[in-house]
Amino acid sequence: MSLSSTCWPEKELHLSHLLFLCILQLEMEKMTKVSTISGRTMFCHLDAPANAISVCRDASQVVVAGRNIFKIYGLEEDGFVERLNLRVGRKPSLNFSCADVMWHQMEENLLATAATNGAVVTWNLARPCRNKQEQLFTEHKRTVNKVCFHPTEVNMLLSGSQDGFMKCFDLRKKESVSTFSGQSESVRDVQFSMKDYFTFAASFENGNVQLWDIRRPDRYERMFTAHTGPVFCCDWHPEDRGWLATGGRDKMVKVWDMSTNRVKEIYCVQTIASVARVKWRPEQRYHLATCSMMVDHNIYVWDVRRPFIPFATFEEHKDVTTGIVWRHQHDPCFLLSGSKDSTLYQHMFKDASRPVDRANPEGLCFGLFGDLAFAAKESLMTGDVGRKTYPGGDRRYPIFFFKKPDVTAQFAQVSSALSVFESEAGSSVGMDWFINTAQSYLLSGKPFAELCEHNAQVAKKLNRLQESTTWTMLRIMFSEPANPSLSTNHNLNKSGNLPLVNSFSMKEMSAALNERNKENRQDNIHSLETNLNNNDENEETEGSEGQAEYLFGDAELDDDDLYSMEHDNQAAEEPEYLLPQEAFPLRHEIMDHPSAPEPVQEKPESPHVSGSEAENTCLTPMESISLISVSQLLFSPHLPPKFFCPIVKEMLCYYAEQGDVQMAVSVLIVLGDRIRKEIDELMQEHWYMSYIDLLQRFELWNVSNEVIKLSTCGAIMCLNQASTTLHINCSNCKRPMSNKGWICDRCHQCASVCAVCHHVVKGLFVWCQGCSHGGHLEHVMEWLKQSKHCPAGCGHLCEYT
Amino acid sequence: MFVAKSIAADHKDLIHDVSYDFHGRRMATCSSDQSVKARKHSFVWDKGDDGEWRCTASWKTHSGSVWRVTWAHPEFGQVLASCSFDRTAAVWEEIVGESNDKQRGQSHWIKRTTLVDSRTSVTDVKFAPKHMGLMLTTCSADGVVRIYEAPDVMNLSQWSLQHEISCKLSCSCISWNPSSSRAHPPMIAVGSDDSNVTYSGKVQIYEYNENTRKYAKAETLMTVTDPVHDIAFAPNLGRSFHVLAIATKDVRIFKLIPLRRESANSSGPTKFEVQVMAQFDSHNSQVWRVSWNITSTLLASSGDDGCVRLWKANYMDNWKCTGILRGDGSPVNGSSGHTAALSTVGVPGTAQMVVGAASAGRYFFPHLDSPSTGSRLAHLLPPPSLIEQMNEPDPTHATQLRHRHMVNSSNQPTDIFLLNDQ
């Protein structure tokens, strides 16, 4: 695929008029040269690890240099072709072992290497013999780290060495023409400025960067500390005269603006490993490529305006990348790299991986109270209509093929907006219901029926009708005849059947027995009404007419039961057969006008006489609950509460699977032994654990502790007994209390005496951490209303928080 | 249902993760700008008096993009873990003590450990459920899941690498099964963002085997072939089965029902019956995040469309969309100044403007004078006229409207939900 110059992003020419002609020339050159470059991502194996690579000006050949390799490869369309091995001779001298290499950008036959033995060697490819070595400068005393040709002057070569000196060579002479002493530590990199003829930059191991004028070897022009730790590399911006990028062991790449009086850091990129090489990307003003010295084998291309995430990554190398170079000085899409893994790669920019595409642009989290925290890239939030559905799909095209020139600009300008969606009080997503329920439910301390009743009311108040109904049903199913609240029905119990009236009567029934006027009945049934209303609502919303019919039809089966049962009841209540007669029309009415609550008041109990157990089990649990209510009266006379256990068990499982473990556990506790044996111990434990965990999340410690205390699982009971140790010191002698009583065995005084009332405090004891005096919570609170001082009279200004 | 509050994020690059703590009062965000910020909520629940989110700490955590941040159970202290592009994961602990920072309302977080075992970007970090002890899991782009344990919970600087699971595919996200039941062995789901669709099974589930003391693959969800960006087990809450939400090119909800073992001593991993409960592509784009509410009744997902969608199941286990939230406050009540103001959220002074521009006053909390916080309505998709009417004081009326409004938002009758919602 070929590039035409029209593809290039518009260049900003920050150049003086003097250079204009030159630029024009360059552009022309670019058009001719660059358009011939093509290729793909490719690699070849080298014989040995590479230390550095350099490319010739027309981008047709690359030289690879290393300790044991010095070769020239041709860059062909579909692969590297070895052109020349410069490492000749039977036993190559150390001069062939290179730390750095540079191909002259003006003279295409000229190369320079920095040998590891401290020699600077030049090579002339035009030499007719096999050994191309031309000049050898052995002036440095230690390893030469870097060699650099002047970009426009043919014969000028600069070297920087571990010995702390930089030398400038004229290739026409046998010796260096000038020596620059950095007067600091080893030189890691030297670079001629691209635009200022006389200037070069040198970076040092002590973190400094120096700017020199080639004509003044006596002292540097400027010096500044660029990094903490060694500065391994520097690179002048190809276009911006004053921009110098430096990379150091502190894992940072910094871009400095040298054009001002004070050197200014304008960008700083934090990479994940020490930076070994940095190279500005041609034609992309803000891009630079880096590779690392250790650990990290990848090559990153950064947009310095977005210094946190690489613009592109090349991940091919298996070992440390030692040399990177853009293939052509005006071509941003080919990068060559050599590595310690003995490979030479040509990377196509379009094949680079883009970390930003994999980085997710959004964060989302549900809070405990139903709030949602949502962070998203702002461009997503504002909802670009024309956005591509799958952004990853665009990766096949290199960035510069886009007609929009602002792709890189888009990359650079990102931010996220963070918002919290707070659940409204009382909305379905909030968790207030959970907390209210947890706090208001009674789990123990009262007779079973009252607990159920109370909890039903709580659920009803919180508008949780299903739960409310469940509690009512449970009360009906499991209320025992001997329940003290049902004292009026003792006579019925003798019949051996569960009294029908139990289920609805409670205390009011006694009144009903005596007076039996309509008003009273209306009162009596108020709890029933909720049931009926629930049923109505359920049926209405579910639209399950079929079930309603079913329910009605089945009732006929049970007529006998119904009559006999009613008979029992009426025997107690005198008016015989009144109930059944009223019952039938009423049932019709309910079916026909399910929303009308009025019919209920006529005779509350009877409409429920229908349904069958088979139905109950086959329906969805929610409906089965409503049907339990219907069927219960029918069966209760004959069936022990145990009969309902399978259904209740199923119901509890249903609640648990619906995520309402609260209900499951509450019912489990309230029912206690009635249901406990029916349910798998492991499952119970699981429910308890889940519920306790939830309670603790909501910081409902008291409820949580109550649940732990009331639980019957061994594993749960011990939860609040483990790992809680209280170390008590005697408040008088300040020694640890060893015995269990209230009297300290050392000073023989009562330990925790209330400072206000001088009695031993049993229960809540509050004390000042400053003077360790304290007492009953109420007493101390009262005391502190009047005085700030310690009630014990020690004079301490107590603080109770 | 929701009131949207915008928080001046102050991150210099993309925010990649938001995480609430165990009690829902603190929030941590992490960003590509290599920092983590912790926020605290002055939240008084009883009064319904919601406070502001205030940034209490912000510190540089890594030398690369920070992908995820997660809180440990508070029993172990105020502990955060973060993972990053720089190939490390780190554990942070908040230090309570006397310092000048306290006066400025800043808390101090110190690094307890850096986990450097990964050779590639660490893409997710999660603490294991509390009942397993203090354990931390990381997954990395080279497909390795690592499970660390702090043998001494009081010493957060010592972590030993307990398990290394090789998933073969580049991992992007992990989720622990939160079930504390003894019937459920520890289980971890791993999602892969490998973009090669020919490798199917981008979600793998590993289970701890008590006998071999190793994690073994229990299940691979072969139907998931596209890159997976996020994965989340629903809070278990006493269920016998597990529910797993997956963010890939759509939202998927899987149900994993453990099958009974034939014999008690069978050493193999649990077999699961895998059911797809739901699959939605309403985002019409990549889905990036999924998150469950605490009762696991509501799933939130966010996608490239910039919306958060809420999903809820009815009693028949039919999942439906119950709400769409737009975080950007795009036109809600038609006031043009509203949107304009929002683009400058966080700039002092604009918050007042937002308040002025908003007509639905009921939806705004009183503390809007903080310059750093703008506020706006969540854009719930039914027409704003409905929402505005809800300002009426009559609660029953408002409830009715809400019902209607919810029905509208899912375009289908959702009567059953309504009952459950109460």
Note the topology:
The complex is a heterodimer of chains A (801) and B (422).
Chain A lengths: L19 H15 L7 E4 L6 E4 L5 E5 L4 E7 L2 E7 L12 E6 L6 E6 L4 E5 L8 E5 L6 E6 L6 E6 L3 E6 L5 E6 L5 E6 L6 E6 L3 E6 L8 E4 L5 E6 L6 E6 L3 E6 L6 E7 L4 E6 L6 E6 L6 E5 L8 E3 L6 E8 L2 E9 L3 E6 L6 H4 L3 E5 L5 E6 H4 L25 H6 L3 E8 L8 H9 L7 H14 L3 H14 L11 H4 L8 H4 L2 H7 L3 H7 L1 H17 L2 H11 L3 H15 L4 H15 L20 H6 L2 H15 L9 H13 L3 H11 L1 H4 L4 H17 L3 H10 L3 H4 L47 E3 L6 E3 H10 L15
Antiparallel strand pairs in A: 1-28, 2-3, 3-4, 4-5, 6-7, 7-8, 8-9, 10-11, 11-12, 12-13, 14-15, 15-16, 16-17, 18-19, 19-20, 20-21, 22-23, 23-24, 24-25, 26-27, 27-28, 29-30, 30-31, 32-33
Chain B lengths: L1 E6 L7 E6 L5 E6 L3 E7 L11 E8 L5 E6 L7 E6 L4 E7 L4 H4 L4 E8 L6 E6 L7 E6 L3 E6 L10 E7 L4 E6 L10 E6 L10 E7 L4 E8 L8 E4 L8 E6 L3 E8 L13 E9 L6 E6 L5 E6 L3 E7 L5 E8 L9 H7 L7 H8 L15 E5 L6 H6 L5 H16 L4 H7 L1
Antiparallel strand pairs in B: 1-26, 2-3, 3-4, 4-5, 6-7, 7-8, 8-9, 10-11, 11-12, 12-13, 14-15, 15-16, 16-17, 18-19, 19-20, 20-21, 22-23, 23-24, 24-25
Helix pairs in contact in B: 2-3
Question: What do you see in this structure?
Answer:
Chain A is of the alpha+beta class. In chain A, 29% of the residues lie in helices and 23% in strands. Chain A has 24 helices and 33 strands. In chain A, strands 1-28-27-26 form a four-stranded antiparallel β-sheet, with no helix packed on it. Chain A has a four-stranded antiparallel β-sheet with strand order 2-3-4-5, with no helix packed on it. In chain A, 47% of the residues are buried. By secondary structure, chain B is mainly beta. Among the domains of chain B are: 153 residues, Methylamine Dehydrogenase, Chain H; 128 residues, 7 Propeller (Methylamine Dehydrogenase, Chain H). In chain B, the strands form seven sheets. In chain B, strands 2-3-4-5 form a four-stranded antiparallel β-sheet, with no helix packed on it. A four-stranded antiparallel β-sheet of chain B has the order 6-7-8-9, with no helix packed on it. Chain B has a four-stranded antiparallel β-sheet with strand order 10-11-12-13, with no helix packed on it. In chain B, helix 2 runs antiparallel to helix 3. The longest helix of chain B has 16 residues. Chain B is globular. Chain B starts with a strand and ends with a helix. The relative contact order of chain B is 0.09. Classes of the chains: A alpha+beta (801), B mainly beta (422). At the A-B interface, strand 29, strand 30, helix 3, strand 31 and helix 12 of A face strand 1, strand 2, strand 3, strand 22 and strand 23 of B. Strand 31 of chain A pairs antiparallel with strand 1 of chain B, so a sheet runs across the interface.
